[in-house]
Amino acid sequence: MVISLVSICKYPKKKTIWSPFFLNFYFQFVQKNSFSSAIADDEHEYWDKIQRKMIKPTEFYEENAEKRQYFYWVDLRGRLFLEDCLPKIISTSLKSNGFLNFFTSRIEMNTTSLHEDYPWMSRCGKELNFIKSADTPIVFSDWVEGGKKLVFGGDLSIPFHPSLLSFNLDKGRLYHDMVGGTKKNKSRYKGRCLLHPSIALQLSNDLSFSHNQVTLTLKGETIDIPTIK
Fold first, then answer.
1. Domain residues of the chain, as ranges?
2. 39-75 per-residue burial string, b: 16 or more CB within 10 A, e: under 16
3. Whose CA, among 4, 65, 140, 195, lies 20 to 30 Å from 155?
């Protein structure tokens, strides 16, 4: 599948002002989701290089495991990995819905004096799980029930509210605040959560960009989307 920037600009589905910020965001999505094995290999190689620099000596993980302290990484698609796991691909990510629900619902800021280079943590009794992330520690991975809910963790969800969206002009990424949800689906984390690129693409046809202003037209309602940096 090949999509060029020229074709995007020349044949928009509706009259929209395509800003450089959005084109950058769109092109990044196409690259990261291309069926081209070469692009996929390049992406894996890039993340492997980043992760290799962050990974600590084996002794660090072994010594802290004795204290029931473990270390994780969340990528831009919300996949969860043990930090010292390489390569970080879908087959090496943690995929149990039960575990992901339990782990993700307990993510909060690391307010301990331990491992301060890890901004997030997830408590499990006396077990402490420290987290680093490529962006936000929770990523909404799916948009379900006709656009009514956003899924995170394994199969937890919160209501989707367009008024809670925000857009990062520098990174070309869409976010939704973590609010609401039932007691079962509640998360300790409060703040912006990145939207998976597939959700951002679904919303892209309803987004308009003009002079660094972003608006969303959904079901006949036009909403101004706050921009962040």
1. 15-39+138-228, 51-133
2. eeeeeeeebeeebeeebeeeeebeebeeeebbbbbbb
3. 65
